[in-house]
Amino acid sequence: MNFKAILDALEAGARGALGVAIACATAGIIVGVVTLTGLGLRLANGLVDIAGGYLLPTLFFAMITSLIFGMGAPTTANYIITSNIAAPALILLKVHLLAAHMFVFYFGIIADLTPPVALAAYAASGIAKSNPMKTGFTATKLAIGAFIIPYMFVYHPGMLLIGITPLSVTQNLITSIAGMFGIGVAMVGYCLAEMRWWERLWFFGSGILLIHPGTSTDLAGFVLLLAGDAFPVAKKKKFPEIGPASIP
């Protein structure tokens, strides 16, 4: 790079930082409001009341809350906001302290992918010179498996290395990776060859079974996943020269 190219790069970086700076300033306002008014505790009680005291609906509402308040916030501010607003609701329902905080923090970070803010996707679209909103929706689609992992933290704290043995760590690692693979290919719709709708449902179901804690569900998920892998392999052998978008 010559001197002019360096100046151009600095100018482009400064222009690109304007949106991030505005988002960070807004996040600071949110942190101040939540901290000084006690809004976090009130929202926590409200989430539990709306969910009727049931854990799964409370997790869903906490997820939506974390996604909203995590938009445009840097990592530190993100944790401060989500831990004050959404985490207390889960702790009220006896969720493990570490699992509750990791749940809301995880979704707060995922907010960098989800439109309409999607700072990470916007940064990627600037590099790729693509449509920012389309990039955000595509990123959300590709990362759909990440929306399931925090639920695993709550229902199976062993994922956070809480009260487990080396054997269970190995089992959790293998089944989680396999489950994320099944869900990932189901969302993308491609595994060696383009997949039909019922094949995508097959892989998605096997992924859910593998992610769900339990030996019986893990075995059933592995059987379905291995059986499902036979479909694209056979299709690839039948159409070895055909590209991803050309298989009937």
Structural features, described:
- With 248 residues, this protein is mostly helical.
- The chain has helices at 3-37, 39-50, 55-70, 75-85, 87-92, 97-110, 119-128, 132-142, 149-155, 166-188, 197-211, 215-238, and strands at 190-191, 193-194.
- It has a two-stranded antiparallel sheet with strand order 1-2.
- Mean pLDDT is 77; it is low at 242-248.
- It is globular, with a radius of gyration of 21 Å.
- 74% of the residues lie in helices and 2% in strands.
- A hairpin with a 1-residue loop joins strand 1 and strand 2.
- The chain contains twelve helices and two strands; from the N terminus they run ααααααααααββαα.
- It has two domains: 1-161, no CATH class; 164-248, no CATH class.
What is the straight-line distance between the termini?
48 Å
Which word captures the global form?
Answer: globular
Tally of domains: 2
Q: What is the N-to-C order of secondary-structure elements (H for helix, E for strand)?
A: HHHHHHHHHHEEHH
Helix/sheet category: mainly alpha
Our Rg estimate from Cα atoms comes to 21 Å
Alpha plus pi helix count: 12
Content of β-strand: under 5%
Biggest sheet descriptor: 2 strands, antiparallel
What's the helical proportion of residues? Answer: over 70%
